[in-house]
Specification:
Chain B: This is Transmembrane protein. The complex is a heterodimer of chains A (140) and B (307). Chain A has 4 helices and 4 strands, in the order αααββαββ. By secondary structure, chain A is of the alpha+beta class. Chain A has a domain of 85 residues: 2-Layer Sandwich (Alpha-Beta Plaits), CATH 3.30.70. In chain A, strands 1-2-4-3 form a 4-stranded antiparallel beta sheet. In chain B, strands 9-8-7-10 form a 4-stranded mixed beta sheet. Chain B has a 3-stranded mixed beta sheet with strand order 1-2-6. Chain B has a 3-stranded antiparallel beta sheet with strand order 3-5-4. Classes of the chains: A alpha+beta (140), B alpha+beta (307).
């Protein structure tokens, strides 16, 4: 009789343990609130940002700045297999250009472009008094 | 003389019972006839008193004649009520002027110790068959039925005992079944409650997860038209410009292993035999003289940033 009760107890315990396992909450259960709050803050912050100017407009501006300074401004497509850190891989609409000219004018033009339109600077090389700089103009 | 009569219904504690002859000690039953069957009425007492037996044929006889009346043994009820004085070799309960029952102690033993009871027996015509003893010297037992209490259990025949045993077993199994059912019920309630909480938590979690996905998608959509930080590399550009101002023939490493870039590093070489260590002129760069006597300049503050 004691055995029967013990067996019932063991079955009950085993069953409860098995069921408890199936009731395990997901690993990120405790952090989902935090995640949600930080995402909400992020969305609020982002939504307060201004929408970027049109890409075409920015591209024209950048091209003009380079043209006035006599710096070469040519469309330049980075190789598709290039290191993702060496080219733009974000979600924005973007066009790539290469600035070419004497180092100091190229640097001045890069500064001026960044001051006027959203543009990312990437690799560059200076050789024989000529500097080549890859930039990416972004917009929407 | 006592008013306790054997073999007829009498009232004790308001209950109609029958007191029958019983036998103390195994010696008492070994001298009986062959067809006699004895049933234990009381097991050996804690004080050492031998077991008490009852003749089952007699018991059945009373069952037939007085159905429903509980039957108790004489010595059983006397011992239960502490009415057996002992202290002498014989303790006598008289059932008539010349007849009675007695308890005989082991001759020469401690007559007060119930463990020394030899047997119970009866006498007729004030004559003891197997002992020479003056009955007047015996301890006399006198009881009043209204002062008596009933022992815990009456006499049962073996069949009745078997039935009672079966009944008790069955009851025990009922209890075991009830306990098992209780365990099952508790387990069910416990698990159901926890499951309900789990379901509630999971529903809440699921809803939050959906919100997370929606917000992520929203953030992503917003970032397709917005930029959190407008890129500004003017500090680094100024540094490079300063270097270029001091050394217009500056070049970048030509081997291609470490291309210069705003997401990588900024390394330059001056022309060979360049006379000036530019790190003394421009803050934020470090210099190193190479075997070709050109300086290798590295921007220390403008390490690559990943966009």
């Amino acid at each position: 009789m004691i055995l029967a009760i013990l067996v019932a107890l063991v079955i009950a315990l085993k069953l409860s343990m098995n069921l408890a396992q199936s009731r395990t909450l997901p690993a990120d259960y405790d952090t989902v609130d935090e995640m949600l709050a930080s995402l909400q803050t992020e969305v609020q912050v982002i939504s307060r940002l201004d929408v970027l100017p049109k890409l075409e407009q920015s591209w024209r501006t950048a091209s003009s700045i380079a043209g006035i300074a006599g710096v070469g401004y040519t469309n330049f497509e980075a190789a598709a297999d290039a290191d993702v850190n060496r080219r733009y891989s974000g979600p924005l609409k973007h066009w790539n250009a290469q600035l070419e000219g004497s180092p100091r004018p190229v640097i001045a033009v890069a500064k001026a472009i960044q001051a006027r339109v959203p543009a990312f600077l990437y690799d560059y090389a200076i050789s024989g008094g000529v500097m080549k700089l890859n930039i990416t103009v972004v917009g929407n | 003389m006592s008013d306790l009569q054997l073999g007829i219904p009498i009232e004790i504690e308001g209950k109609e019972v029958i007191i029958v002859r019983d036998f103390v000690g195994t010696k008492a039953i070994t001298v009986s006839g062959e067809n006699e069957v004895f049933t234990v009425l009381e097991p050996r007492g804690e004080d050492g008193r031998p077991p008490i037996y009852v003749n089952e044929l007699e018991l059945e006889h009373f069952r037939e004649n007085f159905p429903g009346a509980d039957v108790y043994g004489l010595w059983q009820i006397l011992f239960a009520n502490d009415q057996v004085p002992l202290g002498r070799q014989l303790s006598v309960f008289r059932t008539g002027a010349m007849t009675g029952q007695y308890i005989q102690m082991e001759a020469g033993s401690d007559y007060s110790n119930p463990g020394n009871i030899l047997q119970s027996s009866e006498f007729l015509a004030n004559f003891l068959t197997d002992l020479e003893y003056n009955l007047d010297d015996a301890a006399q037992i006198e009881v009043r039925t209204r002062e008596l209490r009933l022992p815990a259990t009456p006499a049962y025949t073996r069949a009745e005992m078997a039935e009672r045993h079966r009944h008790a077993e069955r009851n025990k199994w009922y209890v075991v079944g009830a306990i098992c059912l209780a365990i099952a019920a508790i387990t069910t309630v416990y698990n159901y409650t926890l499951f309900s909480f789990y379901k509630m938590n999971m529903a809440e979690y699921g809803a939050k997860k959906v919100q997370v996905v929606e917000l992520s998608a929203r953030a992503e959509a917003l970032l397709r038209e917005r930029l959190e930080d407008i890129p500004d590399d003017s500090a680094v550009l100024t540094l490079i410009d300063k270097i270029a101002a001091y050394e217009p023939q500056i070049s970048t490493p030509a081997d291609g292993t470490s291309p210069n870039g705003f997401t990588a590093s900024h390394v330059f070489f001056t022309r060979a035999n360049y006379p000036l260590d530019l790190s003394t002129k421009i803050q934020g760069i470090s210099s190193e003289l190479t075997p070709s006597l050109a300086y290798k300049l590295t921007l220390t503050g403008g390490e690559g940033v990943t966009y």
